């Protein structure tokens, strides 16, 4: 004979796949009825037509069958507006402090911010952001990625994300892809429409990305900034003074020269520079010969100017790589370089932080 308490206890371990909280804690479980070895109950979904209904159903069934139940009947409903408002308020409390500041910006939040920036476009800043985020997640870290390249967002396409975040009232649940929680302007600008807002609007979006998103607990937040030293970069610098910075350049003289400006801004805003990533550093022939298609030395020059180091030299991807998305296979040469970079960064930051 199973008891209602046992069912409730078993369901405490079942999490909402998006909110990563127990469905019991989220008040999604109602009307449990136990008759011998048969259990029926109601699951109240946060939104109607929840795309993860099948997953929740499977997890609930497994949890109850684990108690020895021979039959499990689940009926589904959705939260009322009032219930959803209460849930949003609770989620917001997790994400925002009493004075309205994004909770993850507080010093004791345990979140390490890394901004990825470049002097000019097209050097691979977003590619580095995406692959570094995935590599950090591969180390078992809880990673969020904010595509803060508001005008030129590309992260969803690069990661092959086709779905949009679930919205619970005005709170967004980030989309998870390759183990990384992602939020991007691309999710909110319909049909790939160009984004033409100006400074104050942008500031609001970045703030929303931090505070109006249910991130859950994270170790790292990576921000893919727009190239250069525009509004967003300045806002982020002011909003997240504790952010560490990675500057991406190619070996080309002009790219590294322009990147110096982005780096100088980091020094000026007192962002710690983690180092320079030299992307498209060389092309490696099958026989191992390296061809320096874009020249040599841009990364080193930039690192010298900014008194930092080149922390990775990433070659050109082989033609057969990243056909569908810009995510490199973990076992590829590039994938391995990103894994080492993630390990080095994690070692440096975890070693130097108090966590
Ligand atoms: N190591 C690499 N090998 C081959 N192609 C690369 C490499 N790194 C980036 N690319 C390609 O170069 C192009 C530009 O990369 P990406 O969009 O990451 O640059 P970006 O600096 O973020 O540019 P923007 O700021 O304009 O968005 C993309 O098509 C990407 O797939």
From TrEMBL:
<feature type="domain" description="MIP18 family-like">
    <location>
        <begin position="5"/>
        <end position="69"/>
    </location>
</feature>
<dbReference type="Pfam" id="PF01883">
    <property type="entry name" value="FeS_assembly_P"/>
</dbReference>
<dbReference type="GO" id="GO:0016226">
    <property type="term" value="P:iron-sulfur cluster assembly"/>
</dbReference>
<dbReference type="InterPro" id="IPR034904">
    <property type="entry name" value="FSCA_dom_sf"/>
</dbReference>
<dbReference type="InterPro" id="IPR000808">
    <property type="entry name" value="Mrp-like_CS"/>
</dbReference>
<dbReference type="GO" id="GO:0016887">
    <property type="term" value="F:ATP hydrolysis activity"/>
</dbReference>
<dbReference type="InterPro" id="IPR027417">
    <property type="entry name" value="P-loop_NTPase"/>
</dbReference>
<comment type="similarity">
    <text>In the N-terminal section; belongs to the MIP18 family.</text>
</comment>
<dbReference type="InterPro" id="IPR033756">
    <property type="entry name" value="YlxH/NBP35"/>
</dbReference>
<dbReference type="GO" id="GO:0140663">
    <property type="term" value="F:ATP-dependent FeS chaperone activity"/>
</dbReference>
<keyword id="KW-0479">Metal-binding</keyword>
<dbReference type="InterPro" id="IPR044304">
    <property type="entry name" value="NUBPL-like"/>
</dbReference>
<feature type="binding site">
    <location>
        <begin position="119"/>
        <end position="126"/>
    </location>
    <ligand>
        <name>ATP</name>
    </ligand>
</feature>
<dbReference type="GO" id="GO:0005524">
    <property type="term" value="F:ATP binding"/>
</dbReference>
<keyword id="KW-0378">Hydrolase</keyword>
<comment type="function">
    <text>Binds and transfers iron-sulfur (Fe-S) clusters to target apoproteins. Can hydrolyze ATP.</text>
</comment>
<keyword id="KW-0411">Iron-sulfur</keyword>
<keyword id="KW-0067">ATP-binding</keyword>
<dbReference type="GO" id="GO:0051539">
    <property type="term" value="F:4 iron, 4 sulfur cluster binding"/>
</dbReference>
<protein>
    <recommendedName>
        <fullName>Iron-sulfur cluster carrier protein</fullName>
    </recommendedName>
</protein>
<comment type="subunit">
    <text>Homodimer.</text>
</comment>
<comment type="similarity">
    <text>Belongs to the Mrp/NBP35 ATP-binding proteins family.</text>
</comment>
<dbReference type="Pfam" id="PF10609">
    <property type="entry name" value="ParA"/>
</dbReference>
<dbReference type="InterPro" id="IPR002744">
    <property type="entry name" value="MIP18-like"/>
</dbReference>
<dbReference type="InterPro" id="IPR019591">
    <property type="entry name" value="Mrp/NBP35_ATP-bd"/>
</dbReference>
<keyword id="KW-0547">Nucleotide-binding</keyword>
<dbReference type="GO" id="GO:0046872">
    <property type="term" value="F:metal ion binding"/>
</dbReference>
<keyword id="KW-0408">Iron</keyword>
